[in-house]
Amino acid sequence: MNSTTINTINANSLLQDFDLFTDLYGKQTNYFQEIRKFSADKFNVLGIPTQKNEEWKYLNLSPLFKNDFRSVSHTQAFEIDAASAKQFHLCGENAIVFVIENGRLNRAASNVKTLPKGLSIGTLAELADDARVQKHFAQHADAITEPFVALNTAMSFDAMIVLLDEKIKINETIQFAFVTNTNQENISVPIRVLVIAEKHSECTVVESYHTLNEQHKVFVNAVSEVVVGEEARVHYAKIQIESENTFHINYHQVNQAKNSYQHITSLSLGASLLRNNLHIQLDGENCTTYLNGLYVLSGTQVMDNHTLVDHAMPNCYSNELYKGMIDDKSQGIFNGKIFVRKDAQKTNAYQSNKNILLSNDASINTKPQLEIFADDVKCSHGATTGQIDEEALFYLRSRGIAEPEARALLNHAFAAAVINQVESELLKESLLLLLSRKLRVMEEV
Amino acid sequence: MSEDLKILDEVTQSEYKWGFVSNIESDNAPKGLSEDIVRFISEKKNEPSWLLEWRLKAFRYWLTMEEPVWANVHYPKIDFQDIIYYSAPKAKPVLNSLDELDPEIKATFDKLGISLQEQKRLSGVAMDAVIDSVSVKTTFREALGELGIIFCSFSEAVHAHPELIKKYLGSVVPYTDNYYSALNSAVFSDGSFCYIPKGVRCPMELSTYFRINSAGTGQFERTLIVAEDGAYVSYLEGCTAPMRDENQLHAAVVEIVSHTDATVKYSTVQNWYPGNKEGIGGIYNFVTKRGICAGDRAKISWTQVETGSAITWKYPSVILKGDFSIGEFYSVAVTNNMQQADTGTKMIHLGKNTKSTIISKGISGGKSQNSYRGLVKINKNADNARNFSQCDSLLLGDKCGAHTFPYLEVNNKSAKVEHEATTSKVGEDQIFYCNQRGISTEDAVNLIVNGYCKEVFNQLPMEFAVEAQKLLAISLEGSVG
């Protein structure tokens, strides 16, 4: 047994329902079945990483996998209807909302009118015949070295696919609300997304993660692949507001072609253990990419944000801002890497990570990294950990604002700086609302 | 090729200037490593039995360890049985004045541009010159002795001050610490010992010159510096080595203990043979350096200028145990041709109101790889700890790499930790600006690189700062200096 992986017996249990869904993809079944088999084999070899693996140094997964997780049933009846799905809407009246309950598309609960011309959205089974899907599905997220991507590729059954044709601009926000709603213990829910935005297209996609039945332990394993074509613009948001019984491991892979623009905001508020991997691959010249994240932790939450911006081509720009607020006995982890390859001259890459510790039992481990192989670049990163500025606090108090309010104000301002970069006003408002709700709960405790 | 490109090219292709071999007869141990060799070394040095026991314990522990591979450096596997673990110049001369010094050795120093006389007469630096592994010459001993300061070779200290050695040896870097510290503890040949008694301010800079001389000799030095309450000392260490085609391993250990209100300033200039342009030969420099601020308000400051070695792998660290203690790390690391450096620092904050500063400047040229790796750890009880880190990298070519791996672990909410890093090249606009004002491209590069390193050079003692600039200029030969 490899010392950097946990005993594979538990890893195997995650694959035990592999044979239950082998006929989902019509005439493409063989093609996708090959991919699934390959990934299952990979996962068996890779196993679950331990802390001896540098990428998992600060995150201990062994308590999590003491549980024998079983894949969620893909025949269970849906419980969410259109009315009760309203609570998951975050992007206003006009948004196109898909509700995915326990990893399967619940059409009845979704809010989808006729889709605009040039836009198709559906499950992998529905769109499996599209050549673009075959070209990109499971081709970008790394199932060869990342065990949870391999696991997801092997076990996900209702991947959500967004296909955006050339020169199509969609004004309505596309939202995927992923809701886990189970009355069983130790269920694993695979979630998969593929977004393909072709040349000159533009869209906004939001992924939100919710829990309905909060008492049960759930393991959410999500993988998203986003392909941004030439000159295309993609705005993205990931919102995690799951229950305290949720373990969530998330991979988000973005591939950008030349002259494209990508902006992603990640808001992490829920889950007991959350690991986000964000990998942005700049495969063309003149790409612009923004990645912003906010993680607010309380109780005994553990959140680990890993980001990688891979500058493979010259003249690209990347800008990263991650902020964290860590309270109670929670543990925050940030690991950001900027990788500049040999040919990626004239790269401009910036990274900033700012943390506030609100309690003496809280901790933050941050590791901002630069790996640079080109000489004509401007790259920088910064990381800070501290408290609310006492002088700012004094300033507010001297103007008659009581200390608790002043603190709340400053905390909110610190966190809101990330959300304020979101372009869509409606989305921004929802995010600020979610943030204040969490901050208020933290203040009351 | 444009003018400045050409200059950068020349700069990054320059060869090692200090390569030469001195003909001094050596009293070598046979190649290889075993308990017998450890006993041989101990016997040669006429050591007391407790030290031999300690060495053997370290050796047995070393046998159970695995060679670490996590650093961002690549080299062929070291054959630890193919190294001579002890070599000393034959017949150690007893000298009363510098005139009695072996003319060969004197010439060696002269070639290095550091004549002992010159040093003694002009700068007032006391030199503990180490050629290979045994101290040959110690100056200013008497003057220091009057103040109660002990500054001598390690083997002398073992005999003259066994109680101090017993107390402090391995107290900061135990032999169990890592693979190379265990190896060093088993086979260390000599080194320096420095003890500053309570309340004494050492009136001069203490300095040791290290050289690796015999072919195939690994040099395992051990330095121990102890500053009692309220003491102050500034300690210098520097080295150059002759040109060799065989990789030479250097695994030194440096331990510093700084008691209440004491300050230890440790400066080093390292210019060992980096190998030729193809990366053949060169020194492997795998060093463990660590200091502990044992008492309140203690201070330890590391300053290093690293231009040599095929591979540099070291992290001078400070354990900030006393309240209000201070740790500092200033570093310039230059890599050229095929050199690799993985260096940085660790600041472990245990006491309250502790403060640390890290300034690291990396310059990479040729096909070299230059990494900063650092840890700042704030323990749960280290209230109001403060850290500031800045790690800048300068790239002088498109085949080299610069990497930053900082680890920040904060477990106390009142801590304030800041880390900042940048990577860039010498700007065309900066060179253009200088050209415009009549400064040649060569001088402009010199100016910019020196300005870039200034924060670190400012920390060096006067005599060393001059030398460091000279070294930098030679490392970047062709345009600078």
Which characteristics define this entry?
heterodimer; A: 445 residues; alpha/beta; 2 domains; ten-stranded mixed sheet; 8 helices; B: 481 residues; six-stranded parallel barrel; 25% helix; 34% strand
The ordered H/E elements of chain A are EHHEEEEEHHHEEEEEEEEEEEEEEEEHHH
Helix/strand/pairing class of chain A, anyone?
A: alpha/beta
Q: Can you count the helices of chain B?
A: 12
Kindly state the number of beta strands of chain B: 24
What is the strand content of chain B? 25-35%
Brief summary of the model shown:
The complex is a heterodimer of chains A (445) and B (481). By secondary structure, chain A is α/β, with parallel strands linked by helices. Chain A is built from 8 helices and 22 strands.
Account of the 3D structure:
The complex is a heterodimer of chains A (445) and B (481). By secondary structure, chain A is of the alpha/beta class. Chain A has two domains: 5-284, no CATH class; 392-445, no CATH class. Helices cover 20% and strands 39% of the residues of chain A. Chain A is built from eight helices and 22 strands. In chain A, strands 3, 6, 7, 9, 11, 13, 15, 17, 19 and 21 form a ten-stranded mixed beta sheet that branches. In chain A, a hairpin with a 2-residue loop joins strand 4 (96-101) and strand 5. In chain A, helix 6 crosses helix 7. The termini of chain A are far apart. In chain A, 52% of the residues are buried. Chain B is an alpha/beta fold and 481 residues long. Chain B has one domain (8-425). Chain B is 25% helix and 34% strand. Chain B has twelve helices and 24 strands. In chain B, the strands form three sheets. A ten-stranded mixed beta sheet of chain B has the order 4-3-7-9-12-14-17-20-22-24, covered by helices on one side. In chain B, strands 13-15-18-21-19-16 form a six-stranded parallel barrel. In chain B, strand 3 and strand 4 form a beta hairpin. In chain B, helix 2 packs antiparallel against helix 3, helix 3 packs antiparallel against helix 9 and helix 7 (154-160) crosses helix 8. The longest helix of chain B has 17 residues, at 441-457. The relative contact order of chain B is 0.11. Classes of the chains: A alpha/beta (445), B alpha/beta (481). Strand 22 of chain A pairs antiparallel with strand 24 (416-425) of chain B, so a sheet runs across the interface.
